């Protein structure tokens, strides 16, 4: 099941929000207004070895990603969060993967809904 | 059967406090509940504790992972304070691991939902918790209040007084205790009948309650026509002002009583103070108030006697 994750599961996100499209659009707006700053915060904290802080930011971002239907990003951030909890050297690599996922999500989600 | 009784409260009169550091989560939860109940959202546990110090919500929905203070720490802080101990806390968590679930229950949570939230599940879980809360409040009201007058009952006093005393001890604050008795009430009942006597008790209780002014003050009906006034954080000088206001409020009711030398319903009050670290026990202070009540009676009634 987890392998079936998609970049932007708009229908899933909408279903969870009782098909409230206005609400989903507002959440996306808030998400995009904060995501890039949070990513750079995570990068900075990883570089400075502040793993606890980086983990907390990744956790928050992961939650928001799940809410907007960014399934693959949600999973990537979950992996990053775990790596940061374990002080794993993989954190930097996972961060980069998450950034790529974010860019793909951003591209898809900012397109007008096609139906 | 009791639970089918109309509580007079509906879900949309309840208040839910949402605590989450993520603005998207706050927006989602508030939007999903706005047609069900009253919502207030805050971004952290400290704000939540401040909110609860001012007013008690019927349910708190809290994120688990938050900077500074976690949702579980918030729940423990609420449980350790008598006035907030009974607010149900539902957790919203990004993790549904066994360990996370255990921790949520251990902290005193009543339920948890996982993020991303499924609207239908979330709304139904919240409705269930609020319905429980409404019924629990009703039961507490039925258990702790005197059905005739609406004052707290003796059971309330026996259960809650130790906590009130403990809180005063912890804060090193005085607790004034007054015993109030209606003068010549037996004669009143003999003259006007028990139904009118009951009506008199109700009017008098309402008036005494109004005269207390602060929500933390309590009127407890401890006997037929005898009431205990609990005045936390009030020293003897403050309590004298309150008791004199009570005497005056009762006089102003002008309830006719031809069997009394005053020709109207009056009360006598004995006032004593529990001092933390000095007083032996609340029971001893109540006994002292009782003696002073008799002193007020023997001195002619319709007056206050204090230590």
From TrEMBL, chain A:
Pfam families documented for this protein: Hpt (PF01627)
Modified residues (Phosphohistidine): 59
Domain HPt: 20-115
Keywords on record: Phosphoprotein, Two-component regulatory system
Protein name: Hpt domain-containing protein
From TrEMBL, chain B:
Signal peptide region: none
Assigned EC number: 2.7.7.65
Positions carrying 4-aspartylphosphate: 63
Limits of the GGDEF domain: 173-307
Keyword line: Phosphoprotein
Span of domain Response regulatory: 15-130
InterPro entries per the UniProt record, alphabetical: CheY-like_superfamily, Diguanylate_Cyclase, GGDEF_dom, Nucleotide_cyclase, Rev_trsase/Diguanyl_cyclase, Sig_transdc_resp-reg_receiver
Keyword Phosphoprotein included in the entry's annotation: yes
Catalytic activity: 2 GTP = 3',3'-c-di-GMP + 2 diphosphate
PANTHER family per record: DIGUANYLATE CYCLASE DGCM-RELATED, REGULATORY COMPONENTS OF SENSORY TRANSDUCTION SYSTEM
Protein's UniProt name: diguanylate cyclase
Species this chain originates from: Salinimonas profundi
């Amino acid at each position: 099941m987890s392998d079936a994750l998609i970049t932007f599961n708009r229908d899933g996100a909408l279903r969870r929000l009782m098909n409230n499209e206005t609400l989903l659009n507002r959440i996306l707006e808030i998400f995009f207004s904060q995501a890039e700053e949070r990513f750079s915060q995570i990068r900075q904290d990883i570089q400075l070895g502040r793993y606890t802080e980086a983990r907390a930011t990744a956790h928050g971002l992961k939650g928001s990603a799940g809410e907007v239907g960014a399934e693959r990003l949600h999973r990537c951030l979950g992996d990053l969060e775990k790596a940061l909890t374990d002080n794993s050297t993989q954190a930097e690599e996972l961060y980069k993967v998450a950034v790529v996922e974010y860019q793909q999500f951003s591209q898809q989600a900012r397109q007008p809904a096609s139906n | 059967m009791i639970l089918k009784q109309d509580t007079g409260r509906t879900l949309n009169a309840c208040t839910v406090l949402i605590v989450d550091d993520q603005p998207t989560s706050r927006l989602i939860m508030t939007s999903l509940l706005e047609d069900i109940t009253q919502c207030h959202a805050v971004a952290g546990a400290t704000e939540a504790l401040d909110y609860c110090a001012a007013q008690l919500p019927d349910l708190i929905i809290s994120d688990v992972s938050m900077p500074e203070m976690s949702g579980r720490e918030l729940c423990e802080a609420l449980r350790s304070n008598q006035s907030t101990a009974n607010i149900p806390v539902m957790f919203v968590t990004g993790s549904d691991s066994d360990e996370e679930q255990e921790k949520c229950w251990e902290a005193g949570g009543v339920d948890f939902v996982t993020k991303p939230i499924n609207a239908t599940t979330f709304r139904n879980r919240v409705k269930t918790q609020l319905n429980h809360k409404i019924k629990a409040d009703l039961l507490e009201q039925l258990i702790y209040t005197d059905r005739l007058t609406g004052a707290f009952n003796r059971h309330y006093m026996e259960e809650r007084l130790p906590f009130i005393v403990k809180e005063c001890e912890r804060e090193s604050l005085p607790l004034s205790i007054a015993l109030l008795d209606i003068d010549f009430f037996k004669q009143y009942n003999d003259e006007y009948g028990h139904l009118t006597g009951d009506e008199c008790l109700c009017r008098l209780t309402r008036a005494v309650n109004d005269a207390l002014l602060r929500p933390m003050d309590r009127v407890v009906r401890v006997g037929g026509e005898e009431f205990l006034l609990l005045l936390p954080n009030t020293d003897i000088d403050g309590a004298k002002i309150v008791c004199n206001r009570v005497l005056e409020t009762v006089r102003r009711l002008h309830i006719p009583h031809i069997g009394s030398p005053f020709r109207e319903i009056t009360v006598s009050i004995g006032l004593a103070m529990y001092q933390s670290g000095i007083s032996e026990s609340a029971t001893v202070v109540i006994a002292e108030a009782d003696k002073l009540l008799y002193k007020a009676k023997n001195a002619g009634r319709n007056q206050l006697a204090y230590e």
